[in-house]
Amino acid sequence: MPRRFQYMSVPETPVMALTALISLPLPSSYMPLNLKELLDASLMPANSSEEELYVCYALAGDEGVLLPTEKNRRHEQGYCMIVPSRTPLFYLGGENTLTCLLFKNWNRAARPPHDFYNASLSLRQDVLKHIDHIASLINRSNSFHAAEAQQLFQQLYWQVVQGSELQDEGRNELHEAVEAAIVYMSRNYHQAISFSALAKQLGLPHWKFGAEFKKLTGKTPIDYLTALRIQLSKQQLQSALAIREVAQQAGFRDEFYFSRRFRQATGHSPTEYRASPADPPRIVCLQYAAELITLGVRPVATNLHMLDVLDEDDQDVVRIDYSATSEQIMQLAPTLIIYPSYMPLVRLGHLLHAAPCLTIDWEDDMYTRLRKLGAVLGRAKEGEAWIQSYEHLAQSWRHRLREQIGDGETAAAFIVHSGQLYVYTDHHAGHVLYYSLGFKQPAALKDLLRQTTGVKWIAIQPKQIGQFAGDRIFIVQPSDPQDVQQTERLMQSSYWRELEAVKQGRAYIVAESLMHYTPIIVEKLLGEIGQRLLSQQ
Question: Which SUPFAM superfamilies does the record cross-reference, listed alphabetically (predicted)?
Answer without folding.
Answer: Helical backbone' metal receptor (SSF53807), Homeodomain-like (SSF46689)
